[in-house]
Amino acid sequence: MAALKINEDIAVQAVEWYFSLKESPQDAELQRSWKAWIDSDQTHYQAWLKIEQFNHELGSLANPISKTLTHKSVTLENKNRRQLLRSILAIAFVGAGGGIALQRHQLFPVMAADYRTGKGETRQITLNDGTRIELNAESAINVSFSINERSIYLLTGDVLIETARDEATRPLVVYAAWARFQPLGTRFYIRSREQDGLLAVYEGAVNLWQTDQLRFSPLRIESGQKLVFDQNGLSELMAAESSDLAWQQNILVVDAMFLSDFVKELGYHHHGWIHCDNSVSQMRVSGTYPLDDIDRVLRALTTSLPIELVYRTRYWITLKAKSKN
Question: CB pairs under 8 A, 24+ apart, for 221-230?
Fold first, then answer.
């Protein structure tokens, strides 16, 4: 029987399961959730086999990767050790015969990023030049300073940047999948997740070039302005809103958002999987929601929308249309 093609979403899930189980080996409910995930789809099983195969290969101390992993796992602090493990384990899904196309999630680059955050985690960073950065949950950036340019690559997620003056007068340039940005003494926010992009400027100005229009003159976004990017392209300029940065206070503010998109946002802060059934995906959600208690948010939704929660386990939740009694 030919091996099934493992898409990048399932690869990401398999890696996350691996580390969840490593961190909480005595959690019986987590074990049941993992088993249910494997049993629910043949490709889940195939993905886990890849994890086990790679883990077995690392088991030999004669393996040079294993030697490096063993040494660094002992010498690095917990957070850095986890990032190293993620990066090396991602190799299990890359290369000939891996059966994965990584165009969308770019699994290995994200897990090997210079700075990244996990589910429900934010992070503040100060670069060598004094530029201050804040990452939202499930975000990743690479940073590269050369003699000509200070470059930040937003691989995925949300980043708030407050630029610092560079003594060498090198420009700061931010690269994302959908655009390139050059700030002009500014504080600004960029989002880049799959087909979803946003730029909001709070101080100064930012020049923007769309990825497919780099040879043209840039669009200048002034302080107090924002625009969004989706499958239809760039929006008209709008007023920047402080609610776009509500994640800094661990809050999500939405206005008539599709339930499917809302659930995706919650997923960046939930240690598990939340699925929105197609029958309710187009329902609209508005309001202010705390991101430190996702279960509470989901229960609140059942009082405002005709939906119900189906818990396969505590880590695996489906939103579906409310049953008619």
Answer: 221/188, 223/186, 225/200, 225/201, 226/198, 226/199, 226/200, 226/201, 227/198, 227/199, 228/196, 228/197, 228/198, 229/178, 229/179, 229/196, 229/197, 229/198, 229/199, 230/195, 230/196, 230/197
- Look up the CATH architecture of domain 114-243: Sandwich (2.60)
- Which residues, in sequence order, are CB contacts of 129 under 8 Å at separation 6+? 145, 150, 164, 166, 167
Please provide the DSSP assignment of 236-291 as one string. Answer: --EE--GGGGGGGGTEEEEEEEEHHHHHHHHHTT-SSEEEE-TTTTT-EEEEEEET
Contact 140, 106 (CB under 8 A): no
Report the run of H or E that residue 188 belongs to, with start and end.
Answer: strand 179-193
- Could you list the mean pLDDT of each consecutive 10-residue stretch along the chain, which spans 325 residues? 62 78 80 83 80 59 44 50 53 50 49 85 95 96 88 93 92 91 94 91 95 82 95 92 94 96 94 91 96 94 95 89 83
The H or E element containing residue 149 is none
Examine domains 114-243 and 250-321 and report if their fold is the same: no
User: Options 3.90.226.10, 1.20.1250.20, 3.55.50.30, 3.40.50.300; which CATH number does 250-321 get?
Assistant: 3.55.50.30
| C-alpha to C-alpha distance for 318 and 314, rounded to whole angstroms | 11
Calculated CA dihedral for residues 102, 105, 108, 110, nearest 10 degrees? 160
User: What is the reported pLDDT for 246?
Assistant: 96
Residue 314 φ/ψ, nearest 5 degrees: -65, -25
pLDDT at residue 15 in the model = 78
Asked if residue 234 lies in contact with residue 195, where contact means CB atoms within 8 angstroms, the answer is no
Q: What is the Rg, in whole angstroms, of the alpha carbon atoms belonging to the chain? A: 21
For 305, what's the count of Cα atoms within 13 Å in the CB-facing half-sphere?
Answer: 24
Given the structure tokens 């899904």, which residue do they identify?
Answer: 93
3-class SS at 100? Answer: coil
Residue 45: predicted pLDDT: 78
pTM of the model: 0.71
